[in-house]
Input
Amino acid sequence: MELQNFRDLLESKVTPLPPITDPSFLSKFGDYGGCQVVVIGSSTHGAHECHEARAKITEHLITNYGFNIVAIEADWPDAESIDCHVRRRPGPLAMMEAAFDRFPRWLWRNHETEHFVEWLREHNEGLPKQKQIGFYGLDLYSLSKSMESVINTLTHTDPDMAKLARRRYGKVQPWIRHMEEGKTERIKAMIASTEAEVVSMLKDLLQKRLDERAQDKDTEEFHSSEQNARLVAGKHKHSHCLPPSTWPTAPHPQSLSNISVSLSNQTPSATTKP
Output
């Protein structure tokens, strides 16, 4: 495609935006009422203007079009600590204070995100539980933290299953340490030997949640553990399939898709991802 043709195509598809402070800024986002998912990207990975615009657009979509899930590019356990805050779910304050503490910290540990989180908490106040807006993470890097979260949640909801999770995940922890030390051959053998443990943990949590739901019990906290266990299983499988050089960083697309589908099933109406 010639440069001029590309420029003409681009200009026919884009909408120029006024400054965020301009009263007409949000009027440019009035055609999303029929959408289930709105994906908000950014031209930079951390500029103040992008963070502020993303927050304002998301607030607009929630307030005017009933979007009820905010799914961000962040680790599930970190985002869940924010969800506990904005929906007043049980959870220690220390979890939220430690959220988004790994690279790149500036992406979510900033004033714009903090202001949006407090806006969301205020927006949710007084709403029925099923109408509150959830806040979730879609990244898949938090292997150790996800295992810890499963154990910590189960300690309060099902102590016997927590002991089982501690035993099963305890067999996985050594290969994480070897991964950090670069001992690839030892890691390959340990990954193969622990796959059944992480898959069994996920299956048990799924069955537990189904059993609880059949008894009309609130299964939200089990949903959280299930998602963390799903992430652990997906990352474990991914590490088994990829070259060792990619283990610390590469996410697993299928696991990402599974989390997205699970969120849609958990709250089956419109969704937004800032």
Remarks:
- The chain has two domains: 15-140, 143-250.
